[in-house]
Amino acid sequence: MSFDFALQKVMNVKEQEQKNSKNQYTEAMNQFEQVATELYDLLKKKEDLEQAGREKVTKGVSIYELQSSQSQLLRLQHAINETQHTTQLARERMNRKQQDMVRHSIEFKKYEKMKQVKQEQFKEEQRRLENAQMDDIAIQLFQKRWN
């Protein structure tokens, strides 16, 4: 007699949910990394531009170049603000997906543990039945010897 777990179909659904949520988390994490890298690049570009501006000011520069540099910094700052907002949204999405993944993993583990417990109970019942059969056989053999 083989072991059949009554909740195997539910467990399979939970396992599939776990895999899906893990994939969604990985995708969200990759998206966050991409946006965060973009933000880093913009911040680095702004820092480089500011450094170059300070060097130009010490060497002497025309008003037109200063205005051009300032407008470039303003555009860059606007892009940084937008990217920071996008990064924050990506981080929040990644955190939600991580929570979903943890929740689905816990649910799947519960079913896994239930299956393990039921399997142990089944094995124990099989051992008990085998021992009872062996006892019956031993009693019958004993009775045959004395009859």
From TrEMBL:
Its annotated compartments are:
Cell membrane
Concerning InterPro entries, the annotation shows: Flag_assembly_chemotaxis_eff (IPR053716), Flagell_FliJ (IPR012823)
Q: Which Pfam family name is an example for this entry?
A: FliJ
Highest taxon listed in the record's lineage: Bacteria
BP GO terms, sorted: bacterial-type flagellum organization; bacterial-type flagellum-dependent cell motility; chemotaxis; protein transport
Coiled-coil segments, which residues?
Answer: 108-135
**Keywords from the named record:** Bacterial flagellum biogenesis, Bacterial flagellum protein export, Cell membrane, Cell projection, Chemotaxis, Cilium, Coiled coil, Flagellum, Membrane, Protein transport, Transport
Write down what this protein is called: Flagellar FliJ protein
Record family assignment: Belongs to the FliJ family.
Q: Name one GO cellular component term.
A: plasma membrane
Q: How does it sit in the membrane?
A: Peripheral membrane protein
The species this protein belongs to is Alkalihalophilus pseudofirmus
Q: What is the predominant subcellular site recorded for this chain? A: membrane
